[in-house]
Amino acid sequence: MKKFSTIAAFFAAGLSFTHGVSFASPADASIAQAQAIANSSKCAFLPDAPDKHLVVRGDTLWGIAAQFLQNPWCWPEVWGMNKEDIHNPHWIYPGQIIYFDRVNQRLRLANVAGNGNGDGSAGGIPLVKWTPHSRVEGIGADAITSIPASIIEPFLSQPLVIERNALDRTPRIIAASEGRVNTGQGEKSYVRGDLNGGTSFQVFRPGVALKDPDTGLVIGYEAAFVGTMKLEREAGEEGDVHTFIVVKSKEEMSIGDRLIPLPPTPIINYVPHPPSKDIRARIVSIYGGVNAAGQNQIVAINRGRDNGVDLGTVLSLERHGATIRDLTDEKRLVKLPDELYGNVFIFRVFDTISYGLIMQVRDIVKVGDVARSPH
Predict the structure, then answer these.
(1) What is the pLDDT of residue 266?
(2) What integer pLDDT is reported at residue 83 of this predicted model?
(3) Which terminus of the chain has a lower count of CB atoms within 10 Å, N or C?
(4) Are 144 and 9 within one domain?
């Protein structure tokens, strides 16, 4: 288990780091350097930011950052993270207090309470007592996470996007018990196909084709997850039919549904951050087949790892301004300004498609809306 100086080093070094600027470690930046960067950074503090915040269980780093910063996705830069740190973030814990030092325009993390009298504090800011923490793989039991993991966990191992013709190579349900067409939790299904030694499988059926709004080309097929199954008896000499038991059923499984091996649920530290290069994407679909979405719903965009999108990328949501007739000027056509109305947080990335969690929107999200690099 590696030791590291937690965000204490960052707080000692100062605040906002603008894009393209990084240090070997947060402590490498002096207060003067950090302040100079903060003055020119887009990661500015809110004018009505609170004086302090007590970290409690259930907090997220995104939510805490939203109380102090104009753009919550700036928190890795505020933490002084470089590209390597993004994958091993500096965690904070319940019970700690984050103070906003308005005079010096920086934050302080304190583990001791104080009222500014005889405790070594200055300017009403309590003395900061730094306590080193350990960096561990995964998320500590008490650590404050970057986003609400419970929302995206069901999507981490579900297939979501299936390549063309990939379904042809997977085992398939050919019959249900007692001659039924559909089967539910705890019931038997009969499967044909090569299991490749697997015993636990996800069950899905082909979904709708996902078309790129810019080109009109099909860029993938969204799979409809219907549940999980476990092998009860493998096919023997008498035939090539395997017997399965339905473990969990999101909806009834049908003849023709396909099976893929159940992968282990990944443990990933998702750190919201701006993309490393300029990205302009479009909303391809809203998970669940609806036409509009709101906060904490899942959307797909038409950009993926081939375009520089990675886990934790945050994009701004934008809607094109409509073109209207100006009735006050001989009905001249006028285009209204494009409107930024929220953020989308990317948590799963494929080659040409990514899935994101809608964060802090002021309007509904529609298919075709733009998702682009924050400016």
Answers:
(1) 64
(2) 61
(3) N
(4) yes
pTM for the full model?
Answer: 0.66
Helix (H) or strand (E) holding 254: strand 253-254
168 with 71, same domain: the answer is: no
DSSP state, 238? Answer: T
Both tokens of residue 290?
Answer: 């609806």
Is residue 202 within 8 A of residue 260, CB to CB? The reply is yes
Q: Which residues of the chain have pLDDT under 50?
A: 1-41, 112-139
Last residue of a domain, one of 123, 150, 177: 150
- The confidence score (pLDDT) of residue 236 equals 85
Distances (CA, A) of 273 to 184, 296, 301, 350, 373: 41, 18, 17, 18, 10
Number of domains the chain is built from:
3
Same domain, 6 and 90: yes
Q: Is 154 helix (H, G, I), strand (E, B) or coil?
A: helix
Strands 161-162 and 218-222: antiparallel
Range of the domain at 171: 160-261
Evaluate the CA torsion angle 173, 174, 179, 180 in order and state its sign.
positive
